[in-house]
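Methods: example folding runs. The two proteins below were folded one after another, and each record is reproduced exactly as written to the output file, sequence line first and structure-token line second.
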Amino acid sequence: MSEIAVIGAGLMGHGIALVLALGGHRVRLTDSRKETLDQVPGLIASALDTLREAGAVSDEWTPERAAQAIRLEPDLAATVAGASLVIEAITENPEAKRTLFAELDRLCAPETRIASNTSYLDVFPLIPDNRQKHALVMHWYTPPYIVDLVDVVPGPQTDPAVIEEARQLALGLGQVPIVLKRFIPGYVANRIQSAISAEVYHLLDEGVASAREIDDAIIHGLALRIPILGHLAKADFTGIELLRHALANASYSPPPARTRSDAVDDLVAQGRTGVMAGKGFFDWGGRDPAELFRDRDRRLLALKRAMKEVGRMEGE
């Protein structure tokens, strides 16, 4: 058991704190916004309800037990005091992160590991030089108490032992750590997702298919095979020679790089900004967003159980 501090209690931070607590660690969680910190008990209680329903945690994990394992701290200094690991999960703003890292440098012991949950930013130039040896990225996926993946990424000066510690920590939590050789924006999963998004928005803007048809193609075509085979193992079943011919024939031309989409801009102009607004690409029928998130989490847990039962096909 170790003392771990999480900075930022929003969508990712409270979920990371819960995973750490379920893994037996003592956690301190803070946020610069009191209203965000005040929401944490309700969010964690809702997550635990969903996990208990699915049999993913024991009935002993009540909100009261979670409150004992995750101490909410309004003060940054009290949050990080004595912590062996500090996980930064604040907004994706370089200057905000630079300011926080400077504060952590002042407050933390020299050997404290400092990890960032950043999705795309290269945070290493934002971290003081004397902290580089113990700095790394630990990038989680939402919701982290269901999605297993954790990207573990070294900076140019990170001690390899620090990376191995982080990998072992993730394994001990039941997560699946992917250790990259170096930082690259988006890591692996988000880069593949970005490539998919670029094609999806291209198809929408060109009027090739509707949002429902595109999602149906993904769900009933890609998604059925990916959980069992991944992408490269699927290519083995298709045949590498066929794959080679497809590459040689240039059967696919990526859409041009884009920084906007007509379809996305139109939705924002209409106020259709997603589940929290009740509408996005789809109309969510006026349902309470909290109910929608719980429904999503239940379905994800059911799929996760089914995937474990079926197992993954892997070659040596």
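Second run, written to the same file directly after the first:
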Amino acid sequence: MENAFRFRLKQNVIPAILYFTFLSGFFGSTLAYPKLSYLFAYRIFLAFLFFLIFIDLMLNGIELRSFLNFSTFFLIGWCAYSLLSFLWAQDIKSAVRDQVFLTINIFVILIFMYYSRYLRWDVFENIILISFIIHLVVGYLEVVTDKHLWTSKVPLYNLHRTPSTFFANPNDFATYLVLYSPFILGLAINKSRNNFFKKWAAFLSAVLAIPLLILTTSRANYIGFLIALFVYFLLAGKDQKKNLLYYAAIFLVFLMFIIGFRLDFGAFNKGIEMIKIQLSSLVDFSQTYLSSNVRRKLLVVYGLSFLYDYLFFGVGSGNSRVLMEKVKQYTVNVELHNWFLDVLVCYGTVVFILYLVWIFYLLYNLFKIREKNSTLSLPAISLMSSISAFFISSISSSKMIEMRVMWFIFALSLFVLTKSKEEKGEYWA
């Protein structure tokens, strides 16, 4: 009876709770009572998941071989160095805050890897599609009604008809659309699946995501989206390319029909004009009114100067914003608005270089899976496209360390890599 309980706990109960945790992570603090906004569904499921894993490890022990790889060593080392940086951090409260986010998100990544043999990609795929559709529905409701969820800060920015859905701002929502669009594309072109409804739901979702992305006016994510599409098409096999071209042709014919009969009521021209304005603003470095580009440039300059002052060891976990407060009259913003710069300034040169090495390490191993043409080839292509877009999209959001959808991409990457090795009875190094 005890053995049966241990088996069910690891094979059924923990995966089920992990799926719910993953699902609730896409909706953040909106799944909570406003007066207890810190106690939202994701945190409740995550706490329960940690509790069950603790029981599992007590009953069954830990399989060390599952953790003996570069990813584990780097992630745990990053977490340890972040703790060490408390010794020179100016603001311990900010350091603790970021340390909590970093530690929890790293644990989530390791959980995906450790329990990969009991998890199924198709379930993650369904969760991603369902979540994506819900986000699109809410996004279009926000555009039509100009009303937002209680967690959104769009009303504070005095923006109108701008979607943010379950995120705090349009930039975060745009980053989400870009990072998860490759998975939706993968569902649409997967020839091994004969689910007609799912394929067309995925195709329509991919198409309907484009107007919402344009309405976010997130310049970095415009470019990130194009990078994701380009990388996906580049990595796709011949049959997959044919499917992509087939869907693209359908989309273009439909678009020409709509525009030709003026059924879009001028929305297409307005969208093109909006994109032109946003992209042209990328070269606007006017200092008379501190344009966004100038502020971003100053954030980089001051961030690197702080890094230099701390001898390239990093200013300490969560302390970039504390130092930036001192020059706020020049930068306006206190967040670095660049995830890679955030990692460099807060954790130093060594962690930053290892972080880049780790990302390319993941890309290299995912590429090897894609080459083998296994059942995990399409997920690998989606992940590579998403990570490639992430290099640009990560510039958009002000602070990404607490953005679960970003950490989920890396968690899914490790899941796919580990799953691929386990299918052959191997452990990857």
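Comment on the second run: The two ends are 36 Å apart (CA to CA).
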